[in-house]
Design a protein that fits this description.
The complex is a heterodimer of chains A (265) and B (287). Chain A has 265 residues and is mostly helical. Chain A has ten helices and two strands. In chain B, the strands form three sheets. Chain B has a six-stranded mixed sheet, with helices on both faces. In chain B, strands 4-1-6-7 form a four-stranded antiparallel sheet, covered by helices on one side. The longest helix of chain B has 17 residues. Classes of the chains: A mainly alpha (265), B alpha/beta (287). Bound molecules: adenosine-5'-triphosphate (ATP) and magnesium ion.
Chain lengths: 265, 287
């Protein structure tokens, strides 16, 4: 539970911490597309260079990022091996029935691996350096155009920020209930799958019940304090676009341009 | 078959993801005699709850060891050993009603005994026994725990731990959030189990009035250390250290101290209840 690093905030005061959440979100999304632009070895090098630049600028420490990649490592390796084993083309190094290890296969695998890892690292960098509340504010702003399509953007953002706010409480509460059931002799993570599932009932039932209660209380409190979803909302935290945010966008544009040039030559 | 609890230089902390928390217990050594009613007091964050978790095998010592009767637990104890410890030391968490989950009270109470290998045929009798012990009617066994009042839920949750038939009962602020009557009733039940069944009781509390009325011994925790472990009277005699640890005194004792300052007469002994105070005042002829 405590090992999941994706979606955690890591307090700090680095340049990336101080960027506007909107700039970080746009850059993060842009990077996902950019990673598909890397088509040759120079491109690959540039991709990794940028990723290391981002990692070191966050000042969070490389270990945190490795921990972000670790939960997904099997998925990544699985895809990589599929690529290696079933892509044909170029020089064939090994051939056994449908399984071929070829030049193209190895190259493809390398690109896919790099895309996976750099995307995870860069998006982790965004969530590690942005407070959940800032992230929601940024998302709300970016979703604003959807209002034209009658998407309830403000309600969605309110729901999102409440959900984010209560995740730590929920984890604490879960830990407490698990301890309490352990004290009554419950054992978790042992025995057959059926047994393990059954062992979860004494945790999740109390957890659901207390979450529902808490949700109802929160709804009442919001009602009492006059929350109306149909009225326009103002915001306590203001997002302010600064020069460094513009610079950040320029860096991203520069990166795109660099890839365009690399792919032309 | 009296069982002794001993802590030997226990140091412990929590693992929070990649980092370890600062020490929450530092070199705690103590020994609890069987059959005593011991209160654990101290400011918030002093490590009282963590102390109970060590005795129950939920928090393992980083160094040092805990002896629960003839079982010794240290940082490397196996799950089987820990389970054996949990059968001997029943732990009632703070707000234990949040752990209720089953369809009926009876099923919830049976959860613990069944986990420890009790025969399903015997648990009904056990449930009847413990529900009576906590002062509730038998008919409640067939109701849903979620339909009960707060005080009833609390008692059912305690019954669920009593059903393990532990030799030591450790409770974390069992009276928090109860009304005064409910609180008195619960504490006298505890005292009764302690006196009649010889159950060793270790209770974390913030309420010095109940310490004065029910506890034999007191452990004072401060910043992860056990700085005092002696009889309850010794603690309340020591006005200076009480102040240093920012511990309250019972109303009667506060009255006595105030009275001694204003009148210049010293009462013959430390008075912790209204009755003791009245007797002492009569003795010195001031009433
Ligand atoms: N599950 C946990 N994970 C990490 N740290 C914890 C955990 N539980 C307690 N702590 C820390 O351990 C220290 C001691 O906590 P503990 O709960 O033992 O104190 P306490 O004396 O019971 O306090 P209180 O009177 O408020 O209940 C605190 O600093 C707390 O922040
Ligand atoms: Mg506590």
């Amino acid at each position: 539970m405590n090992k999941l690093i994706l979606g955690r905030y890591f307090p700090g005061d680095s340049l990336i911490h101080r960027l506007d959440p909107r700039a970080k979100l746009i850059s993060g999304i842009a990077f996902i597309f950019i990673s598909f632009l890397a088509k040759n070895s120079q491109g690959l090098f540039l991709l990794w260079l940028f990723t290391f630049f981002v990692m070191s600028t966050t000042r969070v420490g490389f270990r945190a990022f490795f921990r972000g990649v670790r939960p997904l490592i099997w998925l990544i390796l699985f895809t990589v091996f599929l690529q290696i084993l079933f892509t044909a083309g170029g020089t064939i190094y090994f051939n056994w029935g449908p399984i071929k290890i070829s030049e193209y296969g190895l190259a493809n695998a390398l690109f896919i691996f790099s895309r996976f890892v750099t995307i995870i690292v860069v998006t982790t960098a965004v969530t590690l350096t942005t407070k959940p509340m800032e992230l929601t504010d940024g998302l709300t702003f970016l979703m604003r155009p959807l209002r034209i399509l009658r998407v309830p953007v403000d309600e969605l953002s309110m729901m999102l920020s409440i959900a984010l706010r209560f995740i730590p409480n929920l984890l604490d509460e879960m830990q407490r209930i698990m301890d309490a059931q352990k004290a009554r002799g419950a054992v978790f993570g042992e025995g057959s799958l059926f047994h393990q599932m059954k062992a979860l009932v004494p945790i999740f039932l109390p957890l659901f019940s207390s979450s529902l209660n808490r949700g109802e209380e929160l709804a009442n409190v919001m009602d009492v304090r006059g929350y109306r979803s149909e009225l326009p909302r103002s915001s306590f935290r203001r997002l302010i676009w600064k020069i460094k945010d513009t610079v950040c966008m320029l860096v991203i544009l520069l990166l795109i341009a660099a890839f365009a040039v690399l792919n032309l030559i | 078959m009296a069982m002794r609890l001993r802590l030997d230089h226990v140091t412990a902390d929590y693992q929070i993801g990649p980092v370890r928390s600062p020490r929450v217990l530092r070199e705690v050594s103590m020994s609890l005699q069987p059959g005593t009613f011991t209160a654990v007091v101290g400011p918030t964050g002093a490590g009282k709850s963590s102390l109970l978790k060590v005795l129950n095998g939920l928090l393992l010592p980083q160094s040092g060891q805990a002896e629960i009767g003839d079982i010794t637990i240290d940082g490397k104890s196996s799950k089987r050993l820990l389970k054996a410890v949990r059968k001997r030391v029943g732990l009632v968490f703070q707000f234990p009603e949040s752990q209720l989950f089953a369809e009926t009270v009876e099923q919830d109470i049976s959860f613990g005994p069944l986990n420890f290998g009790a025969h399903p045929r015997n648990v009904h009798a056990l449930a009847e026994k413990v529900i009576a012990q906590v002062g509730l009617d038998e008919s409640i066994l067939y109701r849903s725990p979620f339909s009960l009042s707060g005080g009833q839920k609390r008692r059912v949750a305690i019954a669920g731990v009593l059903a393990l038939e532990p030799e030591v009962l450790a409770l974390d602020e069992p009276t928090a959030g109860l009304d005064p009557t409910g609180k008195e009733e619960l504490l006298s039940l505890l005292k009764q189990w302690n006196k009649q069944n010889g159950l060793t009781i270790l209770m974390v509390t913030h309420d010095m009035e109940s310490v004065a009325r029910y506890a034999d011994d007191v452990v004072v925790m401060e910043k992860g250390r056990a700085v005092f472990h002696d009889s309850m009277r010794k603690l309340f005699e020591d006005t200076e250290r009480l102040e240093k640890w920012q511990l309250d005194v019972p109303d009667a004792r506060r009255f006595q101290l105030e009275f001694e300052v204003r009148s210049g007469t010293r009462l013959p002994r430390v008075c912790l209840t209204e009755d003791e105070l009245a007797d002492a005042l009569i003795e010195v002829g001031r009433v």
